[in-house]
Amino acid sequence: MAAISLVDLNEENLEEKGCFCLRSKPNSAGYKNKNQWLLGRFSEGLTYKKIMENNKPAGFIEYTPIEYSSRVVYGENYLVIHCLWVAITGKGYASQLIDACIQDAKEQNKNGVIVVTNPDTSWTPSKDVFLKHDFIEIDKAPYGFELLVHKFGQSPNPYFPKDWDKRLEQFEDLTILRTQQCPFVDIATDNVIKGADHLGIRANVIDIKDREELLKLSPTPYGIYGVVFKRKLISFHRLTVHSAVKRLKVLV
């Protein structure tokens, strides 16, 4: 029988344990940036749990209080799940991780737990597993984003902003907005820049400093990565260089 355990990352064990994603490339910029980002977030209440099978990483969940969240959603006294991923399916590991988050929210006297999903990308968690844990969909945003919540009482629902078109109007030049919450952001940024160089387009990169700036600038609820050109959303997830060229070329 497999030995299963949950491990919480913290300041003391982060260097040894590291984050789940890109762990096969510990010297990559994305992996290093993510671990450095985590070091600055633990004091804000961020939780990063890895589920281990026979001492090997099988999946993880990352969540944080809404006032420090990297997702563009409004609400009071919620935990927000940033990421949920399991490498070994069919064993209930995702459910164990979600249950741990819900229990934490109860112990912290939160109003509930929020997650942002999108069926068009693997960069957000899948909706189906959350519906099985009594999450309900309460809001939608452009580009397929869905807002789900598991509430404990009659507190007000969280919600998305409604000014997505206005946000895009700020960006005529090619602009990449990002944080280091995801280790794949570095690769995603490089691919767009390489594609833009191929077309002779200069890319501006905005490293979002805090949640206030995130809520103001982000073109989608995903928050931590967005590419905008000529007031059009190019992507909110990683593209290949070829795909970046293809999407940019139609707007040149």
From TrEMBL:
Residues 1-169 form the N-acetyltransferase domain. It comes from the Bacteria. Pfam families: Acetyltransf_1. The keyword DNA-binding does not apply. Keywords: Transferase. One of its GO terms (molecular function) is acyltransferase activity, transferring groups other than amino-acyl groups. CDD domains: NAT_SF. InterPro entries: Acyl_CoA_acyltransferase, GNAT_dom. This is GNAT family N-acetyltransferase.
